[in-house]
Amino acid sequence: MRQVQRQHWRPSFDCGLGDVKWARQFAPLRSAGMNGLRLAVSWLTVLPVRGPETVDRVAAGRAIALAPLVGGLLGAGAAGLLWMLVWVGASPVLAGLLAVGALALITRGMHLDGLADTMDGLGSYGPPERARQIMKSGGAGPFGVTALVFSIGVQAVSFAALAEADRWFAVALAVTVGRIAVVLACRKGIDAAPDTSFGALVAGTQHPLTAALWFAAALTAAIFATPDHWQGPLAILIALTAATILVRHTVRRFAGLSGDTLGATIELTVSLTAATLSL
């Protein structure tokens, strides 16, 4: 009789080697992305997130490119707080003011401080060196105080109007678009102002494609932010155009980009976006 040889099945691990190799190849990229996100969170919020120990222009560029994601988290938190305050019986205006205050606290007030310093610098009418000296003085002059009152007031009233219309997504979008404006402000071709450490890290780090992708994402998301689908994209276009004009003017006026300018850009963009979405 013919003897039948039994073949024992053995598990093969070769089928997963390709996946392992692929994972190993992309591990540095994934790690760099997470480091960039942690750095963005540590820069833009008070959350106890540690970034990388050493930060160069490459790491700073990744953080700026991911800043809109942090903006999305902040926007979702602001919209959630606004909804909760209205739900428990707070007036929309009070809820809007508290939401703006919460955003200021969680961002260390840096953006509002940058807005005040930038407006004081622009109002000095002196040469770039004198304007930068005024911005670094630490105090808030009449131009800065006026800008703060205007920005906080516009955002609070706009958030209140959006809350009354149940446009919670529009609130989150406005905060997010403020951080998209930072990506546009740090695009290639923008130089840093002299004697500015943060500006030297981030100015000119963003590829035009990165800025274009975030701009397109904002326009697409804005379609769903208002009942009239044209209003949202128009609001984004107006806000980001104004932000671009502000950056261009301040770069010329201060001889480069600085962290204060970025803070002013964020506040201006959030205010304009929220205001136009609330109309």
Automatic annotation (TrEMBL):
This is Adenosylcobinamide-GDP ribazoletransferase. Belongs to the CobS family. GO terms for biological process: cobalamin biosynthetic process. It is found in: Cell membrane. Pathway: Cofactor biosynthesis; adenosylcobalamin biosynthesis; adenosylcobalamin from cob(II)yrinate a,c-diamide: step 7/7. The keyword Transferase applies. The gene is cobS. It comes from Nocardia ninae NBRC 108245. The chain crosses the membrane at residues 59-79, 85-106, 140-162, 168-186, 198-224, 230-247. GO terms for molecular function: adenosylcobinamide-GDP ribazoletransferase activity; cobalamin 5'-phosphate synthase activity.
